[in-house]
Amino acid sequence: xxxxxxxxxxxxxxxxxxxxxxxxxxxxxxxxxxxxxxxxxxxxxxxxxxxxxxxxxxxxxxxxxxxxxxxxxxxxxxxxxxxxxxxxxxxxxxxxxxxxxxxxxxxxxxxxxxxxxxxxxxxxxxxxxxxxxxxxxxxxxxxxxxxxxxxxxxxxxxxxxxxxxxxxxxxxxxxxxxxxxxxxxxxxxxxxxxxxxxxxxxxxxxxxxxxxxxxxxxxxxxxxxxxxxxxxxxxxxxxxxxxxxxxxxxxxxxxxxxxxxxxxxxxxxxxxxxxxxxxxxxxxxxxxxxxxxxxxxxx
Length: 299
What we know:
DNA-binding transcription factor activity, 2 domains, LysR family transcriptional regulator, 11 helices, sequence-specific DNA binding, two-stranded antiparallel ribbon, single chain, 44% helix, seven-stranded mixed sheet, alpha/beta, D-Maltodextrin-Binding Protein, domain 2, Arc Repressor Mutant, subunit A
């Protein structure tokens, strides 16, 4: 029995949902796909699939084997691609997770350059900054704001994003301009930003010289997206602290004003990461290298 052929047949059946569709997608006769899966079950001495005349389901053992076999086959394909890639251009689809903040302001505007360099690569871009199992979802790499604490991922630093504290001219005309962070408590309304990954509220610590203040302010609105917080701030709903790169156009247009600008609002890291359990395909490696160069050019 060709173990890899049997693995591919089993993976194809699980992905397709039945033997007939899997045979069509694998371009194999249906009896061949059936035989390969049966031989695999005999070799392993476990039942991978429950079959009836009407439906097919994956057993618990089959689900575990599917995930492991999927990774093995992907690694083998990546290795072959890597060896062949030394003589050919990288090609295929990359599955990437990116926070909306970075997708709209940095990644997407720069993609024409990437596609000009690598015309045979397609990108499946998912806008997400939530904690999830990247390996199980088949994601090739992620770009994350904040620290990545996952020993299954290899992370590379890209940049640090600076924060600014902002308010709209209309809000400041009504509520006044704070001169010290302690004035925010009780006198002002904050637009609270919560982490989409943890659901916890972000706390801002402002520093100046040896002084450090973490103001506790009331809020009428909490959001889990920095762009939504900016939109609310522009409407005069309160003060917010957000990324300087997002605020720049609105500061330039006068829609927002920086407050407490002699105080440091801190920074947060940006990283790109990919699963440590996989050999990254050539197309993934060139994308990671391109992202690193992109952020380096903006420093």
